Task: inverse folding
């Protein structure tokens, strides 16, 4: 078997040589680069996913996307059996394999790794990799290359799920490993049914008649808009209009559209104009794992009132907290109560005003480094963990144990006379757990939950915006010779290397009232990101600017010379 495996690998790897001068890192969200440089990477990602499937004895996923990057880029992320990002302990191997210079080096690495991990080729256990891709024109060819990588590991089978959103693919992997139906139609049915259930339980009389059901969604000219068009046929009680829905010849993926553009530039995407002033609008990113809301400003038509991931998180936290309270309200016998740990997970990019708001609600807020792989892991430590990045990537995780207790309680409350509030809270929490993607942040399911919660509260977008007022902030990026020269600690809020840079940042920050500033190397672009926050906009701008200059002085491109 080993000899056969060796020769299959050698032969197929020779078809996909590594391009010169390209070094890839697994980054915040898998491998990403200009698409023409990615054949060898996608082939190797196929091998990695196949080995991961052999190791776990489960189905894993391989998603071909570069999310919000320009259309000319592409990339790949691997999903673990529970639908989360591939275990970080495998990232060094993934990087080494992607950068292995020759087929011989590749084979050596694979065999050494397989030995260390105790993986058996062609074993008894079924091994399978689900493949998905977004709408990028290079996706199809790269998918074929990944299939070659998967098939180069004897006994592993690729299964093409076609064009899907990133969260759909993660959801399919998660469901499949639970032995549940995992097709796209199952996804649509689950979302539409749990949404209907939540809408049916909107309290009577809650401004139902006055609630504006209209919602306009920017699909970023990508896969998310396309899927929402399909799903919306199954939805009742919502008037969704999709723009930038990836129609042939109309609009370029992520070009002046999409959640990243709206959030970072604070402007309306293409296709939105004066007729939309005041309406509730939302935007997806290119692979539909990020969601932000916005409203075109009445004051300045070129800008938007942004409702970012922090505010989506706050809305969800408020709703879940209320349901947990209702669940235990009026319960006299303590043994019938269902206490739950509720954790909120943010990153340093969360606006300080959102953190203050959440803490003032009495919630436990914790911080992790940037990247959903960190947030997700932390959120999974609670009965209910809510995580969001400010850019709109996040979800709500329910522990299996808590869900089974909720089921029991539901049956108990349905049969007893404990009152209807605890039963309704149970039903709502169960519906949320099936609506919101348990595998990864999902713009489509997040959008439906926002709509259901707004209807439940009877809130306009204005009510939501007023939940708290963001501190003015500014994000900049600085091109540097080597971004790996920056090493941070404390959830990326402190710089350890280069020496002296943190002191310079502290000195600048001290000049402003209520100011906060940090820098970190991007995991998806060749830049250092600078984030500053202060009590007024000019202060945030000038702090970000002066810290960028320090970054440039310490590490700038001139040090290339
Ligand atoms: P990097 O490039 O590491 O900052 C960006 C986002 C992350 C995450 C990843 C993956 C910011 C500041 N960073 O990572 O939050 O979403 O892309 O897409 O938005
Ligand atoms: Zn994305």
Result:
């Amino acid at each position: 078997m080993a000899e056969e495996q060796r020769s299959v690998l050698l032969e197929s790897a020779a078809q996909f040589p590594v391009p010169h001068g390209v070094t890839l890192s697994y980054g915040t969200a898998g491998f990403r680069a200009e698409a023409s440089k990615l054949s060898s990477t996608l082939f190797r990602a196929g091998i990695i996913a196949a080995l991961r499937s052999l190791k776990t004895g489960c189905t894993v996923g391989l998603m071909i996307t570069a999310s919000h990057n320009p259309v000319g880029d592409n990339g790949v992320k691997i999903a673990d059996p529970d639908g989360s990002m591939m275990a970080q302990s495998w990232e060094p191997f993934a990087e080494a394999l992607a950068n292995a210079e020759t087929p011989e080096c590749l084979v050596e690495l694979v065999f050494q790794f397989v030995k260390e991990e105790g993986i058996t080729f062609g074993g008894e256990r079924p091994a399978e990799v689900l493949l998905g891709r977004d709408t990028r024109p290079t996706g199809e060819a790269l998918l074929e290359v990944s299939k070659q990588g998967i098939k180069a590991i004897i006994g592993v089978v690729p299964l093409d799920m076609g064009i899907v959103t990133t969260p759909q693919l993660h959801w399919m992997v998660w469901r499949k490993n639970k032995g549940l139906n995992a097709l796209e139609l199952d996804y649509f049915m689950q979302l539409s049914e749990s949404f209907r259930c939540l809408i049916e339980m909107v309290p009577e009389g809650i401004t139902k008649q006055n609630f504006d059901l209209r919602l306009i969604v920017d699909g970023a000219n990508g896969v998310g808009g396309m899927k929402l068009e399909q799903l919306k046929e199954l939805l009742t009680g919502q008037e969704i209009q999709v723009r930038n829905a990836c129609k042939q010849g109309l609009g370029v993926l992520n070009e002046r559209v999409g959640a990243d553009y709206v959030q970072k530039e604070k402007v309306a995407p293409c296709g939105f104009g004066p007729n939309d002033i005041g309406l509730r609008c939302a935007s997806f990113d290119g692979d539909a794992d990020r969601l932000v809301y916005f409203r075109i400003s009445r004051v300045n038509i070129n800008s938007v009132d942004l409702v970012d991931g922090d505010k989506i998180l706050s809305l969800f936290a408020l709703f879940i907290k209320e349901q947990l309270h209702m669940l235990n309200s009026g319960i006299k016998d303590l043994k019938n109560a269902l206490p739950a740990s509720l954790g909120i997970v943010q990153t340093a990019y969360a606006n300080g005003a959102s953190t203050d708001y959440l803490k003032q609600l009495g919630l436990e807020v914790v911080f992790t480094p940037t990247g959903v792989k960190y947030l997700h892991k932390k959120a999974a430590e609670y009965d209910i963990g809510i995580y969001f990045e400010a850019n709109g990537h996040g979800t709500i995780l329910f522990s299996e144990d808590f869900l089974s207790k909720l089921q029991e309680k539901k049956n108990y409350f349905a049969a007893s006379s404990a009152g209807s509030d605890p039963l309704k809270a149970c039903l709502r929490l169960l519906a949320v757990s099936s609506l919101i993607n348990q595998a990864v942040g999902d713009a489509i399911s997040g959008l439906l939950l926002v709509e259901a919660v707004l209807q439940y509260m009877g809130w306009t977008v204005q009510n939501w915006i007023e939940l708290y007022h963001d501190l003015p902030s500014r994000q900049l990026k600085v091109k540097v010779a080597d971004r790996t020269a920056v090493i941070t600690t404390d959830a990326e809020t402190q710089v350890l290397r280069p020496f002296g840079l943190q002191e310079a940042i502290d000195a600048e920050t001290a000049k402003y009232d209520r100011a906060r500033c940090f820098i970190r190397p991007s995991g998806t672009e060749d830049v250092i990101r600078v984030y500053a926050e202060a009590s007024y906009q000019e202060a945030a701008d000038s702090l970000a600017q002066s810290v960028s200059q320090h970054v440039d002085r310490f590490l700038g491109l001139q040090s290339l010379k």
The longest strand covers residues 156-163. Residues 28-29, 67, 349, 370-371, 389, 391, 393, 522-525, 529 surround NG1 (ligand 1) (CB under 6 Å).
